[in-house]
């Protein structure tokens, strides 16, 4: 008996969705930073173990969009929730059931649709008063008929293993969709761009908001080394100055960090050449969004 299903991980920005999917996959398939809206695309992590295949979808945080890019991200997230077999809805105690969470609850399927919805109260490692979770769990049960309510920390491997078993229990019986050795639906170029963008978010702290995109201009595989030429897109000249840093110090740091991770991903030596280009208001421009890959066609 084979089991297979799409599992959407939904929630507000910065509740730990990417950390959870990487924990469930036991390897990194989604980039992580402490900044909201880090995830921009619905990324699939594919985990095949024995007769079970889980296809995790790391969705962008569902929020009120401020620009065209935000609208695209929110549409992707809503579509993933509607199409999934199992929905993991993440919240955290300090910001639970705000207007954004209630908007997500309004998207959840009716019970007659026979889809599994599991509420995960994440980041419980930060809660000293554990009994304070009980009123939150009771409120959750009144708001929606969740199949399970699971307090946990996505950083804790014990919790991850228990959640893995729970998901397996609810997986529908059907044939596997992907080959057993496939771990993501995204190609190397996509992962390369995401790794570079992650390092920018980490290294630039709060100086550069989510006004950054990355394009791969050229990639040459020379056998023992891969040469990658990429452009970092920002919105303003001042952001370009920050990304480059004094005497090129910031872009060197970003490049070194990204290169090390890319060498692990590609299992080869990597030469990484980074350029920075300002494109005014690119997140609001259809053509610019198409150029950086957020709109297809």
Number of helices: 9
Question: Which stretches of 5+ consecutive residues score pLDDT under 50?
Answer: 32-40
How much strand? 15-25%
Helical fraction equals: 25-40%
Which class of secondary structure composition applies to the elements? Answer: alpha/beta
Multimeric state: single chain
The succession of helices and strands, N to C, reads EHEEHEHEHEHHEEHHEH
Largest sheet: 6 strands, mixed
Globally, the shape reads globular
How many β-strand stretches? Answer: 9
Mean pLDDT: 81
Can you walk through the features of this model?
- There is one protein chain.
- The protein has 297 residues and is an alpha/beta fold.
- Helices cover 36% and strands 24% of the residues.
- It has nine helices and nine strands.
- Strands 2-3-1-4-5-6 form a six-stranded mixed β-sheet, sandwiched between helices.
- Helix 6 runs antiparallel to helix 8 (249-266).
- It is globular and about 55 Å long.
- Residues 32-40 have low confidence and may be disordered.
SSE layout:
Layout: E1 3-11, H1 17-25, E2 43-49, E3 52-58, H2 68-83, E4 86-92, H3 99-107, E5 116-122, H4 133-143, E6 148-151, H5 157-170, H6 188-204, E7 213-221, E8 225-234, H7 237-244, H8 249-266, E9 269-278, H9 286-291
Parallel strand pairs: 1-3, 1-4, 4-5, 5-6, 8-9
Antiparallel strand pairs: 2-3, 7-8
Helix pairs in contact: 6-8
